[in-house]
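Dear support,

I submitted the protein below through the web form. The confirmation email said the job was done, but the results page showed an empty box. After a refresh the structure appeared. I'm attaching both so you can tell me whether what I see now is the final result or a partial one.
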Amino acid sequence: MSKRELIEPHDGDKRYIRRDDKGRIAESVDVGKSSAADQRRHAQHDAVRGQGDRGDRQKP
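What the results page shows now:
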């Protein structure tokens, strides 16, 4: 899968999307929902750069 990309189709609607090999949108999730889900769950794997929703994030 590709890196997630932040888009804002219209004011107040920010979304993370992933594109398939042909450049079409394969997955879309609201930024607020994604952030809330990250805070509720503890992932078991480290996420690589650009894949923050797929694992734990490194603390600075």
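Response: this is the final, complete result; the empty box was a page-load delay. DSSP finds one helix and three strands in the chain.
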